[in-house]
Amino acid sequence: MTRFVRLYRHLRSETGGLALVEFALGAPLVLLAGGWCTELSYYGLCQLNISQYALSLADNASRVGQVASNGVSTLRETDLNDVLQATKVQGDGLDLTTNGRIILSSLENVTQDYDNAPTQRIHWQRCIGLKQGDGYDSSYGGPTSKKTAGTAAPAGYVAGTDDQYAGVAAPTGMGDAGAKVVAPKDSGVMFVEINYEYQPIFGSMYMKPTRIHYIASFMVRDNRDFERISNPNPTATASTCDLYSPGPVTLNKF
């Protein structure tokens, strides 16, 4: 009995392994806290990046086009494919178009041949990205805006509820509640939506996959012809919103 008492007293006064015990007890807590901070920081960085991608696309789309000798800029399908491809390349590190959806809309307030007065509408939409369904397809203009919207309307066409050529009426503009934008008279706005399913670093340990949503808009910066999107030879495959692909099919060869 005396031997056990002496052993107990010896162990009680022993401090040689104290640091190891403290490390064993504290390391899991430090790792958990560090992992959470890393996950939260990465999530914030993803938010920032996607916001910048949306702004960059809206900015690029607002100034792209082929300028004629009369100073009028014509927007081509290949131009739209190029700016969409640029956004895809920017977001490759996040697999943006694999885990998300990018929608570019032209909100216009102009008088078309089939209008009697300036009418604000979403004339056309172009999209890339594999994600689909609620929360990923456009919140405006229908889930897969008609392929012919924005192309040349035939003679005698009368715009109505059919968005086949004219697009979708948007009298109150576009945007989230409290952040709507409208197009100035006789001009337009390039409006971008990006919806992305965040991919956590540590799986579902700290966060579940969640949707990141950002919008951005820029006024058209040149004297653009809003009648239609042209598609001269060699023609490009339009990135219409009925397609779900990781990027444009046809890029500018020039």
Describe this structure in words.
This protein is an alpha+beta fold and 254 residues long. It has one domain (17-219). It has three helices and seven strands, in the order ααββαβββββ. The radius of gyration is 27 Å and the shape is elongated.
The gist of it:
It comes from Sphingomonas aerophila. This protein is of the alpha+beta class and 254 residues long.
Mean pLDDT: 87
End-to-end separation: 94 Å
User: What does the radius of gyration come to?
Assistant: 27 Å
Q: Proportion of β residues?
A: 15-25%
| N-to-C SSE string, H for helix and E for strand | HHEEHEEEEE
Helix content: 25-40%
The largest pleated sheet is described as: 5 strands, antiparallel
Q: Runs with pLDDT <50, length 5+?
A: none
Strand numbers in spatial order across the main sheet = 5-4-3-6-7
Number of domains: 1
**Number of DSSP-assigned strands:** 7
Shape: elongated
Structural category is alpha+beta
Count helical runs: 3
